[in-house]
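In the current project phase, our protein records have gained a structure token line. A sample record follows, to show the layout:
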Amino acid sequence: MLGLMQDWPLLCHRVIDHAALNHADRPVVTRSIEGPIHATTYADIRARALKVAQRLEKDGIQLGDRVATLAWNTWRHLEAWYGIMGIGAIYHTVNPRLFPEQIVWIVNHAEDRVMMVDLTFVPLLEKLADKLPTIERYVVLTDAAHMPQTSLRNAVPYESWIDEVDGDFGWTSFPETTAAGMCYTSGTTGKPQGRGLFPSLERAAFDDRQRPRRHGRLVQRRGAAGRADVPRQLLGARAHLANAGRGAGHAGRQARRRLDLRGCSTTIV
């Protein structure tokens, strides 16, 4: 006899589905790379993540393909995180603090097909692009108004890219043991070493030391935009993604003050 509860694989897109259904209007607040504070909701994050998934599929990205991100914590990065995993592709967060030659080695070793990049790192990638033959397209995480002139291959602003699809799309179904993401070590002997991550909700949601209260408020200031967010999205916590990319000196203090005015704690996740 089989159980009748939760008869579906524990995949990470179930987290944003839950957040959008049960905490649809809960705010997700970011200091954008362009400068202003940006506010959205879990419902909008999910809707736009579906457009990311649909657009990636239109570009030919399939189950198991690697999609890299070189980006800070923003709502766009969070959307990309769920959109990539939602079609069974593998998100690959690249550490911008590594040496350029290490970034080249990592991207080539992972055989990333698409690179999603914040404005901050466009100049860096322009210097490395001729050494990254597997990258077919660069998606710059901005809108058309802020899109820089760039030599990056098939570069397109994120907002224009996702606007080419309508979002009428369903998440792909696959075994929960399918790889969801990968990252590479740093500071080790020899070249950085790759590690695969799996999309089981049990691991993603409860392997984190932070436990936000229901409707609590947390700040995430470093790292990939998605994984540490999983508990807060399950519990409906208000999400503030304080952008480390603008975190030095006066800009960082200004960002923290603005977030504090919104009633946010200064917990670092």
Remarks:
- The chain has one domain: 13-261.
- The first helix runs from residue 13 to 22.
- The longest strand covers residues 27-31.
